[in-house]
Write a structure and sequence with these properties.
The chain is of the alpha/beta class. It contains 14 helices and 17 strands. It folds into 2 domains: 137 residues, Aspartate Aminotransferase, domain 1 (Alpha-Beta Complex); 256 residues, Aspartate Aminotransferase, domain 2. Helix 2 packs antiparallel against helix 10, helix 3 crosses helix 10 and helix 4 packs parallel to helix 5.
């Protein structure tokens, strides 16, 4: 792979901060955008800006065609059966809230159990807590161990005929752990539970075939896949979507409205009320094409090389403790440094033009498990280099010396 050629696709990378070349290692928060994505978003606003599905004029027809072409691109990428199973949302968080409100409101009652894991992002915790408060259902948590791996024996014991939904993160944003979702889906289905997989971190790094997984709901966000912010996708089995009530009411999700009764639109439009993020969806489709052009296997292989290289340096770095050392993990190096609060560390590294994340990463229960207030997190993408990893550890050495 020609990494320099790939880096040339991302205009934001070619700048200096504080007189030093930018080293962007906050990819788990959001990835940067290639020029092709920027170009299609700009083209929409410059040439095709119009509302979709409703107009008969040329601009509307072109915008609609581009929007729906993105739906087909995303269907193919995730191997959904039909575009009816591809619902555009504002992102992973809205997708999970949609499921909790629509599917959960219709299917969860008092005494039912919802099962999630200890390493979930807040967006796959809070909506279920809210649902449990409304319905009297019970939220149960699959524990994890010190390496950041789920306790699969405990998971098996927690499953029962009362389990109605399993919500599991595919790849932890705080730890990098890749969970054994195939096995977990099979076990959950065996007791009659429905499965939601949060793929926000995983979808840009590992192949996801929703049919092979037999997953009920799979959700992710464009901005973690080289696409625009404010747009994501919910992929769900058509039978579930058809049985679910709409999440929101308004334009485009209807076929007929009278004051007496409303007839809802067919899938996928039933769950896409109002004017959507048209430019974002078009950009999302282009981002998926960008991933396909490089090849997800090549991306994953390159990112593994970077993670291994960074992990070796971390293991040899005095005073650094890694948080999350699962056997199956990707792209994320979380750590704490003796005597330096992660927030201070993030600020010091910023002055060295190294961008990392410092905080709880919207995964406070993970921080509580490891008894730390926060961690520093370097996360890697296809455009990162070994030289940037070296720059990270050179900056960490400066921070360590400063606080020594």
């Amino acid at each position: 792979m020609n990494i320099e050629q790939i880096r040339s696709d991302f205009p934001i990378l070619h700048q200096e901060l504080y007189g030093k070349p930018l080293v962007y290692l906050d990819n788990a928060a959001t990835t940067q955008k290639p020029q092709c994505v920027i170009d299609v978003v700009r083209h929409y606003y410059e040439k095709d800006n119009s509302n979709i599905h409703r107009g008969v004029h040329t601009l509307s027809e072109r915008a609609t065609a581009a929007y729906e072409a993105s739906r087909e691109t995303i269907r193919v990428f995730f191997n959904a059966k039909s575009t009816k199973e591809v619902i555009f949302t504002r992102g992973t968080t809205e997708s999970i809230n949609l499921i909790a409100s629509s599917w959960g409101g219709a299917n969860i009652g008092e005494g039912d159990e919802i099962l999630i894991t200890h390493m979930e992002h807040h967006s796959n915790i809070v909506p279920w807590q809210m649902l449990c408060e409304r319905t009297g259902a019970v939220l149960k948590v699959i524990p994890m161990n010190e390496t950041g791996e789920l306790d699969m024996e405990a998971f098996s014991k927690l499953l029962s005929e009362r389990t109605k939904l399993l919500g599991v993160v595919h790849m932890s944003n705080a730890l990098g752990t890749i969970n054994p979702i195939q096995t977990m889906i099979e076990q959950a289905h065996a007791v009659g539970a429905v499965v939601l997989v949060d793929g926000a971190q995983a979808a840009a790094h590992v192949t996801v075939d929703v049919q092979a997984l037999n997953v009920d709901f799979y959700v992710t966000s464009a901005h973690k896949m080289y696409g625009p912010t404010g747009v994501g996708v919910l992929i769900a089995k058509q039978s579930l979507l058809e049985a679910m009530p709409p999440y929101q009411g308004g334009g485009d999700m209807i076929l007929m409205v009278t004051f007496e009764k409303t007839q809802y639109n067919d899938l996928p439009h039933k769950f896409e009320a109002g004017t959507p993020n048209i430019a974002g969806v078009i950009g999302f489709g282009e981002a998926i094409k960008y991933i396909q052009n490089i090849g997800l296997d090549k991306i994953a292989g390159r990112e593994k090389v970077l993670l291994d290289y960074a992990t070796q340096q971390a293991q040899a770095f005095d005073g650094l403790k890694q948080i999350g050392t699962a056997k199956e993990k990707a792209c994320v190096l979380s750590f704490v440094l003796d005597g330096v609060h992660p927030h201070d560390l993030g600020t010091i590294l910023d002055r060295e033009a190294v961008a990392i994340r410092a905080g709880h990463h919207c995964a406070m229960p993970v921080m509580q498990f490891y008894n730390v207030p926060a961690t520093a997190r370097a996360s890697f993408s296809i455009y990162n280099t070994e030289a940037e990893v070296d720059a990270l550890f050179a900056a960490l050495a400066k921070a360590r010396d400063m606080f020594a």
